[in-house]
Structures are given as structure tokens and as C-alpha cells.
């Protein structure tokens, strides 16, 4: 009768990489396991020991040290160690000690080797570095939901229906009815020689080749709704030419964009039909209804309902809808970027609607202004628990005596309104209600010039947040101009970058992690880790410094990282590592908040490692390690006297 | 009831004399298997614990009485203080030769159909003794394995089997059962510390293993002994300190 080590088998199969093995292979391996018990404090592997087994922590916890005595890693149940030495056939390089009473399973090399050779997924675990393992975890999650990570191509069900700009509206209506479509693209013959622009595709321009070889330009779009509102309601004759009533403003999108981008484009532009281009040729049109069918539509609906509310109270009542849409996106495996930007768009919409309501109440503004979003909303990385960070740029004709009362009232109205909608007041007073942050454009420019040209770590300590800015309402181009000023100026000031870098090191990852995860030691969140303070915030801080150094104008951390990687200032692979770390920590944080909401608790950023799966703990630890390494690099790269 | 050992031998049965006893028994034993078993000898009483080859052994039986009940399965796991060798472990399901009672089926989960094809103990005896010889047997509660094996062999070969055992339950009792519970403790309903296998393991941070599978239980006792020795003996302590 076959000897079955049931307990060993059942334990191993719970853990990566064993769970990827066929049952019979794992059962055979389980039969060959050797076991030893180590009392807390006893040495498991000494430096220079010959290693002949793969070591697996069955219970308890162990610490792995570098030769100089520095702690290298801590492992608990399911942790594997000594495999590097085993694979390289070297002696033990990192000594291992039991820090709790521990039971260790040893898989002899003679058993491990054949499995390693024959089972690729199992082998991958050992061959890839820690960082790549994290990447695999992230990318596996990405794969999990096809819809949210699908390209727009997958939504296109048919070719676009086209009509000449010379056609009448009746012909257009007839064609739409025959084809069963809700919109038409309007074509205009193109005079110029098409070969000139060969291979150059303008986003804003779509070309169509007719069967006779002539080139036509897409010059507009008409929809069902246009026929209703612009023809019938206006009482125009049926022989009106389509180019008289078509929308000439074409908002188009590339077919290889993500569906999510289409959704955001619709949100931003309030357009419900997007022609889809592939290499400059229209290949289809996607309508809001297509997205609704495929997408978690809640965030779209929340946004549109925000703009329908008439009072602050009605807006505040939408909070539960916002939370529901957040949870829904998480449950549909949206990645952190999708969640972050959807929540930012919602937050932005609240601000916009409140400003509209404010202007209705207090009358039109006496001088032009721009309302700014700062921090996570500007970065498109907003989650459910968030402060309101905002400011106002006023026209330079600002006269405090004449105008300030209006803007103080408006700022207070918006700020109180946001607080009612769940965006708590900024404890650092970074709000437009604070007179310091309600200033004319020239003053704002001077603020930034001062920060950048005469920096001290102290003066920059609280101004980090202003380097993530986005215009929400009014003269939003002023926000773009400030961004331009920052990107031109910051990269030249080594002292400024050094100060920003110094501040970016203020918050360190909670390393030592798990068992040694450094937890909050007192207060309400004892034995928890604040994933924002210890994870995403320091990551965003350090990415911002690099982005400023390369003159990037992007606000979102992932976009900034793209610019930074392109500028090649990071060691190879560091960019993707940071991206994975950001994504992973953000997702743990996002899922934690979604769970909070689902269990009717107030969402927060404090996670307890014991509530995470072993897998999450390990990946989180790796992500924090990447952050820690990146901080070291930041310190080294931005020294006050170093020329880059 | 268990007068399997002649009186004069029993008086001599002092644990420190196990090697001499094995010599005597090797001469006295009739059956070649037993002769072979005893001839392998027994480690000296002053052998350091970390030099002793052990084998953890667990039986599932049809009941608790060695005279009336039979052995349904045997699990063996050889080990030392340094390593437990699952690769060399053995597990047999046996025909108990006695009726399988519903109550015991519930405990060990071995059913009539499992034992239909199962061999009699005598068939696996050569392998069993081969696996035991030269090693010190470790059990959790010595009232079962040795008496059952003794009785089974007596019935089949006409002579019993003697060997020293280390009892992890008794080691646990030494720690937690120095004194009977005081009347006050009993009065206030305090329960004695459990020295059952699973409960004992928990005290050493050993993982929970589902009980009543002979092989798993043998493994569980092997781990427990490693933990007990690590906890309160020295590797250089003599085996005589813990065997019976």
C-alpha cells in the first residue's frame, strides 16, 4: 500500500509554487519530505553549511541574515528558503535562524531537482527574482478581468456607416434606419494628395478611401439625437444638407486604447459616440450604450447624476452610490489606475457641480478664476478616503477689497459642500478657503518660483502637494501654464530636487515587515500598517521627484513613471519594478477599502498583515522592498551638489 | 492479564539493562525473526539522545484490549533528533483477525472493505521487525503499541516481543502532572492540562494534524519528541533518561 503523507501533502498544496504541481507529483514529493523541529533562537542553517534540501517553513517563523548580520528576510508558514544556494549548488550564504519554535520541511535535492526540471511554473518561482515574482502577481491580476482590460477593438461590432456631406438629412435618417445604427460619419472629398501624409496619422483626422481610389476626410458626425434636436425640433426641411447640422467637433479614439480610456473620454467630453480609428482610418463607432453593456457603468452614472443634483444635500446623498461604484470596480478587478482615475473624475465632478451651484447662488464671478484640484485628485489616484485639497487661481486684475469676499464665500461653499459629500477638510489647510491659497496668478507663479529657486526642506515640506495640480473649473489653462512653469524650472534647480528628494524620504516603508512588519505601535490602529502613509504616498513622492527632474508635465504617477523611464535616469528594470510596487500596494489598499465598505465599516488605510493572505503578505513585502531600494537610489541621485 | 513475561525476567526488567536483555532474548528467542531482531542489539543506556536512531510507531486498533482486539493499521516513521525521514516511513493496513467494531471504524476510518484484501500481521512481520530493529521505538501512550504487538506475536509465533519505548505522553505528563490536582483546583472545576497528542503538540507550536491515521500519528509523535527534547533536554542527555 502506498504510503501517503496526507498532512504534508495537504499543507504544501496550499502554497505557491507547490499548488501548481500535478497532484501525483506533489503526493510523491510529500512522501520524501524530511522534517526537523527548531526551538526559537536556534540556528537552522549556518554560513558555509552544505545545502541539500529545499527548506519550507511549516510552522513558526525564521529569519535570514546577510553575512554582515543584517536581516535579509523573515518568513512564516509557507516561506521557502535556501533555494538560491541549492540551485547554484553553493554552500549556504545567508544563515537562517528560528525566531519562533518552528517546524521545517526539507525537500531533498534529489526530489526537488526533477520537479524543477520538468515543471515550468514551479521552476519559474525559483528562477525569477523577487521583483519579477511581484510582476507576475500583478499581471495575473490584470489578466483576471477581460472586460476592463480589453482594448476598444473588442467593442466594435461593425464598420462605421458613412455618408457624404452633400446628402440630405432625410437620406441620412433613411440610411440610419436601414443600417440600424444610431450615428453616421460624414465624409468630405479630400483635395490634397494623400501620398503626402502617408504613414502619418493625425489623431484628429480620419481618412477614408472610396472604391474609386479617391480620398475622403471624416468631417463630422450626426446622431439620432442630432436629427431630433437640430432638425425636427427646429423645423428644418428634410432636404437640409447634413453638413449643416452635423457636429464638426470630432472626438475620436484609437482602436488599441483600453475600453476604460473610451469611458474616460466620454466622461471628459460628454460625447456619447466615439469614432474609432485604426491607423487613421475609421473602423467603427462606439456608443455609450456599448460601454454600458460591457463596463461597470456605475461610475459613469454617478458622474451624470452628480450634474443633475440641485442642492448640496442631494449631492451628499450620492455618497453611497460613489462607494458602491468603487466596490463594484474592485470586484470587477479593475486595476488601481482605473479605480484611481474614476474616483478622481467623480471627485472632480463634485467640485464642478458645487462651483456651478455656488455661482448660481452668489452670482457670476467678478473676475475670471481657475479652481484647482491638488494631490491625489490631480494625480488621478483618488480612493474613497480622501481629503479635499484645493486652491483658486485668480485673475491678475484681482482687487482684494472688491473681489475677495466673493471668492471667500465661493471657496467656503465648495469646501463645506465637499465635506458634506465625504471629502473631509484638509488638516493642513490646503484649501481655497485659506487666503494664502486663493491668490492671483502672478502670486502663484511667484510661489512656485520661490519654492523652486530658494528651496529649503522645511519650506517644501508642505508644498509637495502643489506639485500635483490640475485645473477643474474656470480658466483651466492657467493650471496648464503653472505646470509648464514647474516643468521648465524644477529640472534646472539641483537644490530644489535635492530638497524634494530629502522630503520624499521622510516616510519609510514598514520594513522589517510581517512578524517584523513594522506596525503602528499605539493608538487606534495598533498592529496595523498604514498603506497610504507607508506605501503609496512615499512612492508617489519619489516618482514626483524623478518626474520633476526630467521635466515631465504628467500628473499621474504611472504616466510620470513612463516619462522617467523614457528619460533613462533609472537603472534598468527599476521603472517596471516601481510600477508593479505602486500597483500592488495600491490594490491591497483599494481592496481593503472595498472590504471595509462591504462590511459596513468606515473605510481606512490601515491593514493588519494577519488579515492578508500569505501570498499578499509576501508580495507586499517585496513591494515595500522596492520602495526602500528606490528611496536609497533617490537619496544618492539628488544630492545638492551633484550635477545630473 | 498480561503475564507474558516470566516472573524472574520481570523482576530483572530495569530499563538501564536493555542491551543485556536484548542479548539474553536473542539467545532465548525461538523464532528466527525475533532472534534476528534482538541480535541487532539495543543502544547503550548512556547513549546521547542525538546519537539515537528512533522510530515513531502508531497503531490503529479495533479496541483497547490487546487480548480481545486486533491491529488495523501500523504507521512507522524513522527519525533522529536531527531529521525525520518520511521517505523511509511505512504504513500497513492489516486484517485485525477480530471483528471491526462500528465505534472504532468511526475513529480510524478504516472500513471492512479496506481490510478485505488486507494481509495478516504475520505477512508484514519481516518488514515490520526490519524497520524496528536497532531503533528505539517512540509512541504516544505506551499502553497500546507494545502490548498489542506483544499479544499479536504471542498468538502467532508463540512468543512475545520486548523492547524499550519512549513515551511522549509520559514525557508530557512529567511536565504537567507532577501533582494530582488539589482539591481546591478540582472544586473550582479546573481541568488538568491535556496531554493528548494534538494538545501537546500545540504547546510546542507544532501544526495541527488530523489524528487517528497511524502514519500521521507516528509522524506527529516523532515531531513531538524532537520538540520535547529541544525544549527541556540536552542533545547530550542519555537515552536512559526517557526510555522505559
Automatic annotation (TrEMBL), chain A:
Domain (CBS) ranges: 156-238, 246-302
Gene3D superfamilies given in the database record: CBS-domain, Jelly Rolls
SMART domains: CBS, cNMP
All residue ranges annotated as the Cyclic nucleotide-binding domain in the record: 17-116
Protein name per its UniProtKB record: Cyclic nucleotide-binding protein
Database matches in InterPro entries: CBS_dom (IPR000644), CBS_dom_sf (IPR046342), cNMP-bd_dom (IPR000595), cNMP-bd_dom_sf (IPR018490), Diverse_CBS-Domain (IPR051257), DUF294_put_nucleoTrafse_sb-bd (IPR018821), GlnD_Uridyltrans_N (IPR005105), RmlC-like_jellyroll (IPR014710)
Domain of life: Bacteria
Keywords: CBS domain
GO MF term list: [protein-PII] uridylyltransferase activity
One Pfam family it belongs to: CBS
UniProtKB/TrEMBL annotation, chain B:
Gene Ontology annotations for the cellular component aspect, listed alphabetically: cytosol
Pfam families: RNase_T
One GO BP: DNA metabolic process
Domain of life per record: Bacteria
Matches recorded under CDD domains: DEDDh
Ranges for domain Exonuclease: 53-234
Residue stretches spanning the membrane: none
Transmembrane helix is among the record's keywords: no
InterPro entries hit by this protein: Ribonucl_H (IPR013520), RNaseH-like_sf (IPR012337), RNaseH_sf (IPR036397)
Single GO molecular function: nucleic acid binding
SMART domains in UniProt: EXOIII
UniProt xrefs under SUPFAM superfamilies: Ribonuclease H-like (SSF53098)
This protein's UniProt keywords: Exonuclease, Hydrolase, Nuclease
NCBIfam families from the UniProt entry: PRK09146.1
Protein name: DNA polymerase III subunit epsilon
Source organism of this protein record: Oceanospirillum multiglobuliferum
Amino acid at each position: 500500500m502506498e504510503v501517503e503523507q496526507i498532512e504534508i501533502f495537504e499543507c504544501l498544496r496550499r502554497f505557491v509554487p507547490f499548488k501548481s504541481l500535478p497532484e501525483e507529483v506533489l503526493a510523491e514529493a510529500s512522501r520524501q519530505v524530511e522534517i526537523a523541529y527548531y526551538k526559537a533562537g536556534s540556528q537552522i542553517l549556518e554560513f558555509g553549511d552544505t545545502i541539500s534540501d529545499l527548506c519550507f517553513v511549516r510552522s513558526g517563523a525564521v529569519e535570514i541574515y546577510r553575512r554582515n548580520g543584517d536581516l535579509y528576510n523573515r518568513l512564516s508558514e509557507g516561506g521557502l528558503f535556501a533555494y538560491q544556494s541549492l540551485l547554484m549548488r553553493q554552500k549556504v550564504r545567508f544563515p537562517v535562524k528560528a525566531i519562533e519554535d518552528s517546524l521545517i520541511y526539507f525537500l531533498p535535492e534529489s526530489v526537488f531537482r526533477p520537479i524543477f526540471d520538468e515543471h515550468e511554473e514551479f521552476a519559474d518561482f525559483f528562477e525569477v527574482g523577487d521583483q519579477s515574482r511581484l510582476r507576475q502577481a500583478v499581471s495575473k491580476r490584470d489578466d483576471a478581468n477581460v472586460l476592463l482590460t480589453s482594448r476598444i477593438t473588442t467593442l466594435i461590432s461593425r464598420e462605421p456607416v458613412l455618408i457624404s456631406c452633400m446628402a440630405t438629412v432625410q437620406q441620412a435618417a433613411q440610411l440610419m434606419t436601414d443600417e440600424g445604427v444610431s450615428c453616421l460619419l460624414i465624409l468630405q472629398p479630400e483635395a490634397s494628395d494623400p501620398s503626402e501624409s502617408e504613414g502619418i496619422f493625425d489623431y484628429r483626422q480620419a481618412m477614408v478611401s472610396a472604391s474609386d481610389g479617391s480620398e475622403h476626410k471624416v468631417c463630422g458626425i450626426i446622431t439620432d439625437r442630432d436629427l431630433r434636436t437640430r432638425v425636427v425640433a427646429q423645423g428644418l426641411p428634410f432636404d437640409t444638407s447634413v453638413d449643416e447640422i452635423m457636429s464638426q467637433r470630432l472626438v475620436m479614439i484609437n482602436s488599441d486604447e483600453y475600453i476604460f480610456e473610451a469611458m474616460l473620454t466620454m466622461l471628459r467630453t460628454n460625447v456619447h459616440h466615439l469614432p474609432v480609428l485604426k491607423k487613421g482610418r475609421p473602423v467603427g463607432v462606439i456608443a455609450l450604450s456599448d460601454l454600458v453593456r460591457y463596463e461597470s457603468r456605475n461610475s459613469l452614472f454617478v458622474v451624470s447624476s452628480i450634474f443633475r443634483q440641485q442642492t448640496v444635500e442631494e449631492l451628499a446623498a450620492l455618497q453611497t452610490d460613489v462607494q458602491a461604484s468603487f466596490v463594484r470596480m474592485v470586484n470587477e478587478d479593475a486595476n488601481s489606475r482605473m479605480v484611481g482615475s474614476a474616483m478622481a473624475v467623480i471627485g472632480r465632478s463634485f467640485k464642478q457641480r458645487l462651483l456651478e451651484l455656488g455661482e448660481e447662488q452668489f452670482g457670476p464671478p467678478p473676475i475670471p478664476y481657475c479652481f484647482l484640484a491638488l494631490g491625489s485628485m490631480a494625480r488621478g489616484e483618488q480612493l474613497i478616503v480622501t481629503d479635499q485639497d484645493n486652491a483658486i487661481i485668480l485673475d491678475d486684475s484681482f482687487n482684494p477689497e472688491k473681489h475677495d469676499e466673493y471668492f471667500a464665500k465661493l471657496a467656503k461653499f465648495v469646501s463645506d459642500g465637499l465635506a458634506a459629500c465625504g471629502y473631509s477638510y484638509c488638516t493642513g489647510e490646503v484649501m481655497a478657503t485659506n487666503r494664502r491659497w486663493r491668490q492671483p496668478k502672478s502670486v502663484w507663479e511667484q510661489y512656485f518660483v520661490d519654492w523652486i529657486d530658494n528651496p529649503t526642506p522645511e519650506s517644501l515640506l508642505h508644498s509637495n502637494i502643489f506639485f500635483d495640480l490640475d485645473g477643474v473649473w474656470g480658466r483651466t489653462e492657467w493650471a496648464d501654464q503653472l505646470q509648464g512653469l514647474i516643468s521648465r524650472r524644477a529640472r534646472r534647480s539641483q537644490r530644489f530636487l535635492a530638497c524634494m528628494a530629502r522630503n520624499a524620504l521622510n516616510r519609510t516603508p514598514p520594513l522589517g515587515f510581517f512578524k517584523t512588519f513594522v506596525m503602528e505601535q499605539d493608538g487606534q490602529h495598533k498592529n496595523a500598517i498604514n498603506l497610504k502613509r507607508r506605501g503609496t504616498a512615499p512612492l508617489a513622492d519619489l516618482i514626483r521627484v524623478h518626474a520633476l527632474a526630467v521635466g515631465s508635465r504628467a500628473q499621474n504617477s504611472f504616466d510620470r513613471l513612463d516619462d522617467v523611464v523614457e528619460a533613462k535616469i533609472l537603472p534598468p528594470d527599476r521603472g517596471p519594478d516601481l510600477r508593479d510596487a505602486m500597483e500592488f500596494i495600491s490594490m491591497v489598499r483599494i481592496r481593503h477599502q472595498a472590504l471595509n465598505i462591504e462590511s459596513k465599516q468606515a473605510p481606512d488605510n490601515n491593514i493588519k498583515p494577519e488579515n492578508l493572505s500569505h501570498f499578499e503578505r509576501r508580495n507586499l513585502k517585496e513591494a515595500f522592498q522596492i520602495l526602500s531600494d528606490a528611496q536609497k537610489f533617490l537619496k544618492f541621485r539628488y544630492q545638492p551638489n551633484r550635477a545630473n | 492479564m498480561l503475564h507474558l513475561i516470566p516472573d524472574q525476567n520481570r523482576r530483572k526488567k530495569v530499563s538501564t539493562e536493555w542491551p543485556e536483555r536484548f542479548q539474553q532474548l536473542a539467545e532465548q528467542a525461538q523464532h528466527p525473526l525475533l532472534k534476528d531482531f534482538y541480535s541487532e542489539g539495543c543502544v547503550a543506556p548512556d547513549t546521547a539522545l542525538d546519537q539515537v536512531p528512533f522510530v515513531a510507531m502508531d497503531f490503529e486498533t479495533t479496541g483497547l484490549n490487546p487480548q480481545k482486539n486486533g491491529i488495523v493499521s501500523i504507521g512507522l516513521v524513522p527519525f533522529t533528533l536531527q531529521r525525520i525521514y518520511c521517505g523511509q516511513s511505512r504504513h500497513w493496513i492489516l486484517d485485525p483477525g477480530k471483528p471491526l467494531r462500528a465505534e472504532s471504524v468511526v475513529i480510524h476510518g478504516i472500513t471492512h472493505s479496506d481490510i478485505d484484501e488486507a494481509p495478516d500481521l504475520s505477512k508484514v512481520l519481516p518488514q515490520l521487525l526490519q524497520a524496528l530493529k536497532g531503533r528505539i521505538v517512540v509512541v504516544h501512550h505506551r499502553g497500546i503499541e507494545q502490548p498489542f504487538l506483544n499479544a499479536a506475536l504471542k498468538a502467532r509465533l508463540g512468543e512475545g516481543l520486548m523492547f524499550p519505548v519512549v513515551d511522549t505522553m509520559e514525557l508530557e505528563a512529567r511536565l504537567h502532572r507532577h501533582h494530582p490536582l488539589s482539591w481546591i483546583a478540582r472544586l473550582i472545576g479546573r481541568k488538568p492540562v491535556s496531554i493528548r497528542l494534538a494538545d501537546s503538540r500545540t504547546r510546542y507550536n507544532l501544526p495541527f494534524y488530523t489524528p487517528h491515521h497511524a502514519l500521521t500519528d507516528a509522524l506527529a509523535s516523532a515531531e513531538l519528541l524532537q520538540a520535547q527534547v529541544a525544549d527541556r533536554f540536552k542533545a547530550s542527555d542519555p537515552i536512559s533518561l526517557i526510555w522505559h
